[in-house]
């Protein structure tokens, strides 16, 4: 190297080393982004369930979380045919179980996401009763939500007392 700069060979060696390091780092970054997206989606659903349970106990009435195909609309409604990733509504369920009626108070709305949700026993909604117990459409209170993204699985498992626990796995 003379006192004025780098040679072409030195510059090519630096570029080659940089390209190799970048090729190693990008897959790790994609994994990190996917893990964070899955954690955020899991946290959103868990916090929704916890909010519904605490509001049911506080208000001494049924509070429901239902899936919705128009969650971001001015008047969102429950839709049993929708997918959980299309969004969901948390509301005080004073009328027909699992359906938003005219007098129901909507507490919170979550819009669509891009993670696959599947549910067992909570195919259209989950309610929490005044004593905190959970109840699905078939009357049973225990069930599972499974969230899957890029081969990573998070299970949100509810027992009939409304207690939530998480499990990790692969899908």
Write up this protein.
- The chain contains 1 helix and 9 strands, in the order αβββββββββ.
- Strand 5 (125-128) and strand 6 (134-135) form a beta hairpin.
- A 5-stranded antiparallel beta sheet has the order 3-2-1-5-6, with helices on one face.
- The radius of gyration is 23 Å and the shape is elongated.
- The protein has a single domain, classed as minor pseudopilin epsh fold (3-Layer(bab) Sandwich), CATH 3.55.40.10.
- It has one helix at 8-59; strands spanning 63-67, 88-92, 105-110, 116-120, 125-128, 134-135, 143-149, 152-158, 164-170.
- The protein has 171 residues and is of the alpha+beta class.
- Helices cover 30% and strands 28% of the residues.
- The model has no long low-confidence stretch (mean pLDDT 90).
The CATH superfamily bears the name minor pseudopilin epsh domain
For the biggest β-sheet, the strand order reads: 3-2-1-5-6
Which fold name corresponds to the CATH topology? minor pseudopilin epsh fold
Helix content: 25-40%
Report the sheet with the most strands, covering strand number, pairing sense and barrel closure: 5 strands, antiparallel
The figure for the number of domains is 1
In N-to-C order, the SSE pattern is HEEEEEEEEE
N-C termini distance = 54 Å
Class based on secondary structure composition and strand pairing: alpha+beta
Number of extended strands: 9
């Amino acid at each position: 190297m003379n006192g004025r700069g780098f040679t072409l060979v030195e510059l090519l060696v630096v570029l080659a080393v940089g390209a190799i390091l970048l090729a190693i780092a990008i897959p790790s970054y994609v994994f990190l982004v996917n893990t964070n997206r899955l954690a955020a989606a899991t946290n959103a659903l868990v916090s929704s369930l916890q909010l519904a349970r605490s509001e049911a106990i506080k208000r001494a009435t049924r509070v429901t979380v239902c899936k919705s195909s128009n969650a971001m609309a001015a008047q969102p409604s429950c839709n049993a045919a929708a997918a959980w990733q299309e969004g969901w509504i948390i509301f005080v369920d004073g009328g027909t179980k699992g359906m938003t009626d005219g007098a129901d108070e909507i507490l919170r709305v979550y819009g669509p996401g891009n993670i696959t949700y599947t549910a067992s026993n909570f195919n259209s909604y989950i309610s929490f009763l005044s004593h905190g117990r959970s109840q699905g459409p078939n009357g049973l209170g225990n069930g599972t939500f499974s969230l899957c993204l890029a081969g990573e699985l998070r299970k949100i498992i509810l027992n009939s007392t409304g207690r939530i626990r998480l499990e990790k796995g692969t899908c």
